[in-house]
Amino acid sequence: MQKLLIKGKKNLAGSISISGSKNATLPILAASILAKDVNLTNVPLVKDIFTMIELLKFIGIKVKIFKKKKTIQLKNSNKKINTLAPYKLVKTMRAGVLVLGSLLTKYKKAKVSLPGGCAIGTRPVDIHLFALKKLGAKIKIKDGYIIAEAKQGLIGNKIRFPSISVGATENALIAACSAEGKTVLSNCAIEPEILDLITFLKKLGILIQISGRKIIINGKKSVKKKVNHKIIFDRIEAGTYLIAGALIGKKIIIRNVLSRVIKNEIKILKKIGAKITVKKNIITITKSKNMKKINVITKPYPGFPTDLQAQLMVLMTQTKGVSKIKENIFENRFMHVPELKRMGAKIEIQNKTARIFGPSKLTGAEVMATDLRASVSLVLAGLIADNRTIVNRIYHLDRGYEFLEKKLKKCNAVIKRI
Ligand code: UD1
After folding, report:
1. Which domains are present in the chain?
2. Please, are residues 156 and 134 in contact by the beta-carbon 8 Å criterion?
3. Which residues' Cβ are closer than 6 Å to ligand 1?
4. What would the pLDDT profile of 209-257 be if each residue is shown by its tens digit?
């Protein structure tokens, strides 16, 4: 099994180009089932994207990948469509459940494996199913599968989500595109990746209006045949490298971002004390010797993202005083804490809140990655630790970070895959 070896304490300097967003690409790939001919650019070529492509091929979509151009072409000739998403493809990547909305709305039926829990929490799909039922789907669960049917097609409705969910908003939004009439979704997630999905769906010719957390969709039975779309940048990847810059950056330049999308994260890093300048979507960050404690709560966008919680915690080990992070989205997302403690961090957890006592000196150790973002937090810890750190189970990292070692090495980090 592959591991990452990091020799810490090397100041980082250089330029990092941010890849396209994995979490925007996944629902857009699922929504591509609705169209005939789709061309996606700025696609991050990471494991989760390849798994979604496998799933689309299984369903009957023809997919071509142009690796150098970061482009994917998808063609749906509507022949030999299999409205099934099997367990073997959904179990490794929960976003597989997003094909439910598109299959159901276009082909009036779908059988999709229940994704099950994962390391960061139980992660049910009840809100997805609640919304699809409101659109008229008959749904039953049998043998670990969601079996959904809408013999006469889906019908628009007013749906208020009981709590904010990114995936459920995406599934309902896609399903409403080919439902009959108007759908009004309220209490929606409004993550930038959802806005990118809406931009894509509008290119298909669907009328969609958004105001606050309300999204109004006018369904259309047939959509435009050919669509080109450039995927938005990965704000979590950008946030991760900004934190690397705040930790050990002599001068890191982050490119290919829209700074307004991550203004909250930039504000928090500035408050901690990192030296940041933003010029025309190019962000420069340098570490500061005097970093101050901060309290952060993870929330749906525009709040601070749960997907950056583990990385921010590493930075908090270097700030002066007691910082706090309350994890409000997932119930079990502190699994990086025992590993960070083994490297010398002083952290206490009580219920949903972690208290981080800083600054502490981190020392390299052999550590175990448990999920995507926890893994990258251990890499960040390795970059500032004495001696060498070995991060095990890095297949988690490969699910979501494109060219991680290459990007860090370009900034003088000593990191290699063994
Ligand atoms: C997406 C992101 C993930 C991110 C998360 C929160 C993708 C592919 N993944 O995941 O990286 O961490 O948003 O920003 O975009 N919930 C229910 N029932 C449901 C659905 C969700 O109880 O039917 C709960 C979840 O367990 C969780 C919370 O709602 O506690 C938010 O989850 P959700 O926003 O749905 O996350 P995902 O779409 O799975």
Report:
1. 4-18+233-417 (3.65.10.10), 22-230 (3.65.10.10)
2. no
3. 23, 26, 94-95, 121, 123-128, 163, 165-168, 189, 305-307, 329-330
4. 999 999 999 999 888 889 999 999 999 999 999 999 999 999 999 999 9
